[in-house]
User: Fold this.
Amino acid sequence: MEKVSEFAQEQIPPRNVHGPGLGAFGTFTATNANAAQYSKAKLFESGKTTPFVMRFSGVFAEKGESDLNRDARGIAFKFKTEEGNWDLLAVNTSVFNCRDMKIGPDFIRSLKRDPRSGQKNRNMAFDFAGHHPESLHATLQLYTDRVGTPKSLRTQHWWACNTYSLINAANKRVWCRFHMVALQGAPEGFDSVTAKTIAGEEPGYLQRDIRDAIDAGKFPRWRLCVQVMDEEQGYTNPLGFDCTKVWHHDDFPLIELGIIEVNQNCIDHFTQTEQAAYNPCHTVPGIGFSPDKLLQGRLLMYETTQRHRVGPNHKMLPVNCPVTGINSNYYNGGHMNLNTRDKYPNYYPSVFAGNMPQADASLVEPSFKCDGPANFYDLPGEGSDADYYQQPRDFLKVQSQNDYLNLADNFGTDLAKCFKEVVDLMMGHFQKIDPAFAAAVQAAIAKHSAPATPSEKVFAQEYAVVQAAGPNGK
Assistant:
């Protein structure tokens, strides 16, 4: 009975995003002798080696789906430093699809399942992108082969798209963006037909590629780099805190901080991968945040997510616990509390200081400037051609002929299955980005158009009823 009961309760809630994943371990070795001018974080001291636990993942895919379905990919590191844990989370697109957490759930839901049927619905993703043109740059990247259907995660570049800050010993701040450059060669992708063929034979192709490489001693490595922007410039530059925009390397060149090496596979998928809990709130002295509105929302939600998914004492689990231990007396109970400690008092401040950690004023970050209105974006030029279309236009210009044609064909494959209203919405944006690209997508739609399946016909009938009812259901 005990065996059966344990079996019935051995699962925990899956991640709502980044569901399918593969964990591993490795080391970060700092290489920049001048890093102290930007950050006082000890892990950046040249020559210093810091262990980490990490996780590769899909983003919108669900646990059990093929990891070669068209999707963005994620990577997360928990650097276990002598000053505490630093969690760095990134994706394989240089920009994100939204820049304010208030619409973050809408974006995620548009790429999940239709709540009525439980089926994937391509109309939803394009409907969202069409109504949020700031997402077009990320959408274009997702529909390339090298990002959407990569041949290997080992050759992917990774971007922590949000703006963070680095703070040095003099308490001077610069804004920064973290970027991981693969040392295994340039990223490549499968065309959509090949990706689907391999997915049918080996759904976990990308995860197996990583595990096999590590087992063979071909350890994946990345250069951890930052781009740096002066603090005052961040308050005036429209790109400063907008994660739907790249910082061009000509203006903000990459500065190497060190080398990331992934060199050990997990031996227990549940305890070392599923229970691993990453959170951008976890930083160390010398690394901070910014007025980036998507980042500010992420700082609020990740802890709630992990408490729901793993439990209130998830930080005590070995995979998540800092090397220094949980240095707080506030952990007073809750499910699966692992610590037995002499921890009086359990409030602060107190004349009975006892074992209570003391506040360190030297670790307080300089404050942000937060002037003016606080609306959804609050960005100069919001809605202009430069805001919505210039970076997508630049992205198309650097594609090879083959990549350009495959990109148009990938869009055409999916848009051919969408309603006319959704197609028209997206084509209007493509026309503004580049009329030639719009024409290529339109030709691909015509090429891939096919009679509706029975389920699509039923959906179309339901859609017509909803449209006729109007917004109030009358």
